[in-house]
What we know:
The chain has 287 residues and is α+β, with helices and mostly antiparallel strands. The protein has helices at residues 8-12, 69-78, 128-132, 135-145, 155-168, 205-216, 230-246, 258-271, and strands at residues 2-5, 14-17, 33-40, 43-51, 59-62, 90-97, 100-106, 116-124, 172-176, 184-189, 192-196, 222-228, 276-283.
Amino acid sequence: MLKHVIGKSTLTEGIAIPRSLESWVNAPELGCKRDIILHFNGVRTIATLRRIANARGNVQIKYEGTKGIAFRQWLAAIFVATSSGMSGEYIEIDKFGADEYHVEAFPLAAQNADRLVVVEWMLQGLTQGAAERLLPVREIPAVVQNVTFDPVAGQNFYNATLAESFELWNWTNEIQVIPELPLKSDFMKDGVLVEVEFGNARTYYQDYIKFALAHISGVTRFGLLLVPTEAFASSLCEVGRQRAIAKGRHAYSGMIHFEKVRREFVHMTKIFKMPFGVIGIGRNGEK
Length: 287
């Protein structure tokens, strides 16, 4: 099954097939193409599966012509939130016959209301438009929104459930950043490195160092740090304090949050010149 996050090109042109799934779609030879059938919303359309005659040999499903009008209209009607930017909306494409696929939509409106969401971004060395063109970056809101908010859960729960969600989106975890050092990334995909930091406020500086080392070594194109918003961090800290008290402890150290990172961001960008970003994660509807 292919999970594909919706971008503006998805609404108007087509879908890129990851190299790991090229055999699954029985991708054509370089420069060749053939018709396939997409089933959606009780109807079907004819699309084109092709391998572009370029150096990489990209494989795509294209539906920008006259035959794809109904499919494009359906996408535009379902995925309204994507027109405003990266919303985490996505489709799942499942193969059920020779060159026949079922397409299921997962718009923002159908998501569980009590969930985590991407609240805010900060970027260094990369524009918002350039970041959105990186498919793994566009997947982050979908990964985050797959996690349900639980008011009595602590940081271990969210670390574990986020890890499960990244795995569902085929991100690789625990990859050594560079061979010479025992530093490992949380998640990596197609040159994008992600660190999820729900820990002590001092530990996130190491994440910047990971981004720098990976970029200098040519391992990554972009690094992303995921931290809780201040409101979400306060909720997690309260859970942590209550658990500490229950265990007879009277101290509980705080955790990193987006507002602290924001205050320090301009200083970090003077030290670290590689492209990177910070994402604030919070509860849906958080003020």
